[in-house]
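Journal club side-thread
Mid-discussion, someone asked how the predicted structure for our own chain would compare to the paper's figures. Pasting it here so we can look after the session.
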Amino acid sequence: MRTVAGGDRANSAGAHWRIRYKLGVTYQGVVLGPDGDIWMCDGGFGSTLDRFPRHGPVQKYQLGYEPAQLTVGSDGAFWLTTNGSTILRVTTALKITAYPVTDFLAGGIVTGGDGNVWFVEQFHIGRITPRGQLKEYPITIGSKQFESIGETGIAWGPDGHLWFGASAYGDFIVNLDPATGAIRTVAADDISGGPVIAGPDGNIWYTNGWTRSYQTALVQLTPSGQATTYDGPQGYIQPGTPQGMIAGPDGALWFVTQHVSGSRVIGGGLVRFDIGKHRFTANASPQGYEWQWAPAFDKSSNVWMSANNQAQIFRQR
């Protein structure tokens, strides 16, 4: 594994934030819906799927389950993980179908290049077709049982395999071949159990909660398993961050992060990583609104972030 010190830059000139309040919520997963609106999961007391129309107030739809992460499936419906053992399919007409799974749903969910939805359970990787046919793959090599790490993301890689974080007497990025169920592993010290995504450069990207220098870091992993670590911005040093990451329409990686002191979030924001230049650009959150969870781009290339007690919008002029 190589380690590279990433370039560091402060807030972009002309950038600004907008806070859309919705008190009493715990927004987590966020996605651009097939209708062109932003949708967020309220996994707190509300247990709702919330729609943010381009014009008008927030619309809240009761699910009866606590949602966590979501993806738009190849069928145009939303597919959600929950804080339990149930996958939800929700149409834009608000028809809800629940599918029980074997384990606790531990992490992310993604729409694969095969048209199916893939998700992380505690000891399995699940696949569900648009028609609701479920198959679960144990995360094992021989008699060795792996357990997914924290709220690990899951990515459909350029090799047509699934990539995610798991542990078994050590931390690993795991590659699952959906055709055979076979898995292979790449050692991943200090993996945070956070996002794992397919980058626009044809590689897998994931986050370390911290490196030996106690900096948040990004790791680039080639399909063959070669890893390069990029030390993150100095102003966002804290184990356990970033929380969410996406590939932007500009070809860069965007992630949200937090700076925690004791039990308090005292800083954080939105960070852009230019893959070609190895440069981080940090955009600090407005004071008092630092707890972001996950980002998504809208149709106007604004970045929406789910957060505790509010939704946030970041614009670059």
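Post-session note: The two ends are 37 Å apart (CA to CA).
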